[in-house]
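Deliverable D2.4 — example input (structure tokens):
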């Protein structure tokens, strides 16, 4: 039967035991092994069969690495057909996470027992897929349409007790799962319990269910911004409620195959592996072991420092939150309390939980209180001299071995480290605003940063729920360095003839969470303005790319906070509206620059903005600033609202074809400012060699 599946006996009960680390995915070997074991159990003298997994979890789904490869029999649907019609009573014994195809195996068994700590779910939608082995047909038959809509369109797992309430699980135990499952099987045999098949349970469509599906469809359309899998799931659920089981299975199969062939699923599967790869650091030396972090000092109790403090306190790590004065730090604490109170109001946290989290934060206005902390994160004003001063002080205060991190967005980690006598302990930890919400953390390696501090920052990032990406040192690190090129092209499209509405709508229809000019308004146009004031003319770049923004600020239009920026904002709803005053400024700038406005196609806007990002991304990869192309995709999807179903800027050009991307870049180079469109040599090299970005390692 192979190494991954064994069939054994516990007295009268047959046990199919799966052992395919790390997550018991349903690889070809596992499917074949279960098929063989079912055949033996069908003819031996066992009275019932228990399906059980070794290791940390029940089956966590189909083997995602097999998607896109030639199919190998038995397929999961064929295996489940055999399981459904098995002559013996079948029981799934669930621990860890029964997900996707794994949960579909369990749903096909006659009964399900779970450990209280287990979770079950159908997360396929997060991979641009739908449950393709009966999940959309069996779930509503067991739990009803409303629960099935929720479970399958959200993809979020539920715990064992909720699954029990929904009748997706029949029994929950606290310990000794395999013993309890064998005893449960014996008891069911003793009671002559029927071989209950979810496939034979009745289901009909009530008016309420129909309405619910319609409302869910409309909501999802808005929320998922063009993702196709959620709508396909609703279609399958509708079929489940209106057609016989076999018809439903047929429909589900068709929709699953369509999803699998859809580029959205390829992008989402790329992101699944990209997120996991991002946490791995290439070439880490032997001594690069993460140290344990129990206490953290955060300097700066403003929006950023406060948000970072929340992340640590939520993860149960003690925080000393510092600001210049007691008053400033209490204001920071008040804001944190307010944010958590909103979460309590929305039912996401309990008051007891927020009390405990608040108790993890100790306020202080004395840097000396950081003498014993394991890690310090500085989040003060974005000014190199101020940061250097803080680090010089920390050098005299903090214990040996403490990790000293700066939350800078742009400043040189090397210059900051040079202010201390221990540059090996210094690195960048760049959080994104609002830090308690945004999942991205850029871990920035300075020239002297030790492998230990890098490994520690990556590990602590995971602990506080961030997706951490390693970046080398350059101005703006990975994300903001690329963003300059994206922002430049948005501004240039505007002066060349487009409008704020066309630019933002083009990018939003393509899938961005928010268009670039609306994002600038949200962040505050004064921020870029002040940053430019500190730059030389050369660093500021092409004046055409910031003249409109400068004039908006000078006219008092700072963005949403002043009620107007690239748009006029409704004070009540914050809805944006076009404003003729903005177009008057744009017209004036066009005249000064001698530009005759031309008509824009949305495609040009999308191509210019995404290729500007990807071209700079390729340069970062070539310079070794990013470890791998997929890390850049993680940065963009988690830090900049890039749609996951497009897979990030690097996946976007990889999937359009690097040759086509280079052809477009050459066109831009010929038609637009060639200085802006210097093609990354890595891209031309890969096109010449027929190579892929995914194969190139930046370090
Ligand atoms: C499906 O089932 C379709 C069916 O309906 C229909 C079929 C016809 N396959 O996340 P971790 C790897 S679609 C292959 O770090 P954790 C993962 O890449 C599937 N590999 O651990 C990583 O590898 P590495 C529906 C997989 O403890 C390692 O395992 N199921 C799979 O934080 C550890 O993973 C899902 O979408 C897989 N299915 O979390 C569940 N899963 O060490 C996807 C994991 O080389 N999985 N790997 O980087 C998960 O959500 C999490 O992995 C899980 C564990 C919660 C299980």
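Example output (designed residues):
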């Amino acid at each position: 039967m192979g190494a991954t599946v064994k069939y054994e006996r516990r007295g009268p009960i047959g046990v199919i035991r799966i052992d395919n680390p790390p997550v018991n995915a349903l690889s070809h070997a596992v499917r074949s092994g279960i098929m063989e074991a079912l055949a033996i159990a069908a003819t031996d003298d066992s009275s019932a069969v228990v399906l059980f997994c070794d290791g940390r979890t029940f089956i966590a789904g189909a083997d995602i690495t097999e998607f896109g490869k030639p199919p190998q029999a038995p397929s999961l649907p064929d295996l489940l057909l055999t399981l459904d019609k098995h002559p013996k009573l079948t029981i799934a014994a669930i621990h860890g996470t029964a997900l996707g195809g794994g949960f579909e195996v369990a749903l096909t068994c006659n009964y399900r027992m779970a450990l209280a700590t287990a979770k079950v779910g159908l997360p396929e939608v997060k991979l641009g897929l739908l449950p393709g082995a009966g999940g959309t047909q069996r779930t509503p038959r067991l739990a009803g349409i409303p629960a099935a809509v929720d479970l399958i369109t959200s993809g979020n797992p539920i715990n064992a007790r909720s699954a029990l309430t929904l009748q997706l699980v029949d029994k929950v135990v606290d310990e000794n799962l395999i013993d309890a499952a064998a005893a449960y099987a014996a008891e069911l045999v003793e009671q002559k319990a029927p071989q209950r098949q979810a496939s034979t349970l009745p289901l009909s469509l009530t008016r309420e269910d129909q309405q619910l599906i319609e409302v869910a469809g409309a909501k999802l359309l808005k929320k998922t911004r063009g993702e196709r899998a959620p709508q396909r799931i609703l279609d399958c659920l509708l079929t489940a409620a209106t057609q016989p089981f076999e018809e439903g299975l047929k429909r589900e199969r068709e929709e699953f195959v369509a999803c699998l062939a859809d580029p959205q699923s390829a992008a989402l599967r790329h992101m699944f592996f990209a997120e996991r790869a991002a946490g791995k650091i290439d070439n880490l030396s032997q001594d690069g072991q993460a140290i344990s972090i129990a206490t953290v000092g955060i300097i700066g109790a403003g929006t950023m420092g406060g948000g970072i403090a929340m992340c640590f306190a939520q993860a149960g790590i003690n925080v000393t939150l510092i600001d210049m004065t007691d008053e400033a730090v209490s204001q920071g604490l008040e804001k944190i309390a307010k944010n958590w109170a909103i979460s309590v109001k929305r039912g996401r946290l309990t008051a007891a939980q927020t009390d405990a989290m608040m108790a993890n934060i100790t306020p202080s206005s004395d840097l000396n209180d950081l003498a014993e902390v394991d890690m310090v994160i500085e989040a003060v004003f974005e000014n190199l001299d101020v940061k250097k001063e803080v680090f010089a002080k920390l050098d005299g205060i903090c214990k040996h071995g403490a990790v000293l991190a700066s939350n800078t967005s742009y400043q040189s980690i090397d210059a900051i480290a040079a202010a201390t006598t221990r540059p090996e302990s210094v690195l960048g930890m760049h959080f994104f605003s609002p830090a308690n919400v945004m999942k991205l953390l850029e871990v920035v390696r300075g020239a002297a940063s030790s492998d230990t501090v890098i490994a520690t920052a990556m590990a602590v990032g995971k602990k506080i729920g961030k997706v951490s990406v390693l970046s080398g040192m350059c101005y703006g690190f990975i994300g903001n360095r690329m963003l300059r090129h994206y922002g430049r092209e948005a501004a240039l499209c505007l002066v060349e003839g487009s409008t704020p509405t066309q630019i933002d709508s083009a990018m939003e229809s393509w899938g961005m969470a928010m268009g670039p000019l609306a994002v600038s308004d949200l962040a505050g146009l004064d921020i870029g303005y002040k940053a430019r004031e500190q730059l030389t003319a050369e660093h500021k770049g092409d004046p055409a790319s910031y003249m409109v923004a400068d004039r908006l600020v000078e006219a008092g239009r700072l963005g949403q906070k002043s009620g107007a920026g690239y748009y006029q904002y409704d004070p009540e709803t914050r809805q944006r509206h076009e404003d003729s005053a903005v177009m008057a400024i744009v017209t004036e700038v066009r005249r000064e620059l001698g530009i005759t406005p031309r008509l824009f196609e949305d495609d040009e806007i999308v191509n210019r903005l995404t290729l500007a990002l990807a071209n700079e991304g390729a340069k970062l990869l070539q310079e070794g600033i990013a470890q791998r192309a997929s890390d850049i995709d993680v940065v963009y999807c988690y830090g900049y609202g890039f749609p996951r179903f497009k897979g990030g800027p690097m996946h976007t050009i990889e999937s359009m074809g690097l040759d086509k991307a280079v052809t477009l870049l050459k066109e831009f180079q010929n038609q637009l400012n060639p200085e802006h469109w210097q093609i990354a040599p890595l891209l031309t090299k890969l096109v010449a060699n027929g190579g892929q970005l995914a194969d190139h390692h930046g370090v």
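The radius of gyration is 28 Å.
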